[in-house]
Amino acid sequence: MTKRWILATKLIAKALVVMQRQLLAQNCGAFNRFKGDYFMAVAKQSIVVLLKFADGFTSTQSPEKLIYVLELYETLSSSAPGLLHLFTGPHTELISRQVPVVLAKLERALRTATGALAIKIQTESSQAEGVGVHPLAEYTMTCVELLAPHRAALDMILADGGEGERATSFGGLVAELIAGLERSLEEKCGLAFADGSPSQHLFLANNTSFVLSRAADADVTSLLGDEWAARHRSRLEQHTARYLQASWGPVVACLETAGGKPAKALAKFNAVFDEMHGSQEQKYMKLDKSVRYTVDDVAQSLSELFEGDAALLCT
């Protein structure tokens, strides 16, 4: 419905301009005295219908409808100057009063919806299953990507929020959403790996890497700042190093405790590697076991655990 309203608003604005031009250019005889009033009546009725529809969304506060209401707001905001230019006399005053009222109500609804989105991310209750990217991380960063094209409108809407609002800019909103996501993931990690399993570091590394990548894709890293990016890259490196040390340190140690016997060292390495990789795979498809692992085999196996990101292993 909002898509149709947006299209109708654009078409009506163009149609009214053409209608006004044609009426002014034509000699309609006795009707010349009334054609101005006739046009004003048609234009007023058209705008009132559009405003009534938009006003119906001013009570919408659902995060799921945030993008639709935001697009509606942007269309009305950008179309308003051209529409108001069509009116003269008392009609101008009437429409000029109604449009700002509807826009202000939409702004309040959008601020409430962004706050509700932040709360939803912070309080989402699903548990961590496996060590891969959590659905909440995917949901949050998808929201960021969808909101990114509307950053100019959100900057204006959030800046006018007044005292007590959480974020006062689009960048502030993104930072709040990601911070809420990370707090939620930390809680889920603590519950899922309460036994202190090294997998907790793998879970956090995969999700931190995902957030960094999607933030870059949405072109919001610059809004978050160099310090934010550096802190998250450092956090990623720490989780990766802790996981590798806790899980694979004993495997590597097999190569150092074979008493100078390479064949025995490699056999023990293969056996311990198979056991450790099998326990860490969780939801991933198990690799076919081989008698001997090459360097590429090891890199590929570990890459699967890190959501296919072999770059994490370059340490």
UniProtKB/TrEMBL annotation:
<comment type="similarity">
    <text>Belongs to the EXO70 family.</text>
</comment>
<keyword id="KW-0732">Signal</keyword>
<dbReference type="InterPro" id="IPR016159">
    <property type="entry name" value="Cullin_repeat-like_dom_sf"/>
</dbReference>
<comment type="function">
    <text>Component of the exocyst complex.</text>
</comment>
<keyword id="KW-0813">Transport</keyword>
<feature type="signal peptide">
    <location>
        <begin position="1"/>
        <end position="25"/>
    </location>
</feature>
<dbReference type="GO" id="GO:0006887">
    <property type="term" value="P:exocytosis"/>
</dbReference>
<dbReference type="InterPro" id="IPR046364">
    <property type="entry name" value="Exo70_C"/>
</dbReference>
<dbReference type="Pfam" id="PF03081">
    <property type="entry name" value="Exo70_C"/>
</dbReference>
<dbReference type="GO" id="GO:0015031">
    <property type="term" value="P:protein transport"/>
</dbReference>
<dbReference type="GO" id="GO:0000145">
    <property type="term" value="C:exocyst"/>
</dbReference>
<keyword id="KW-0653">Protein transport</keyword>
<feature type="domain" description="Exocyst complex subunit Exo70 C-terminal">
    <location>
        <begin position="3"/>
        <end position="292"/>
    </location>
</feature>
<dbReference type="InterPro" id="IPR004140">
    <property type="entry name" value="Exo70"/>
</dbReference>
<dbReference type="GO" id="GO:0005546">
    <property type="term" value="F:phosphatidylinositol-4,5-bisphosphate binding"/>
</dbReference>
<protein>
    <recommendedName>
        <fullName>Exocyst subunit Exo70 family protein</fullName>
    </recommendedName>
</protein>
<keyword id="KW-0268">Exocytosis</keyword>
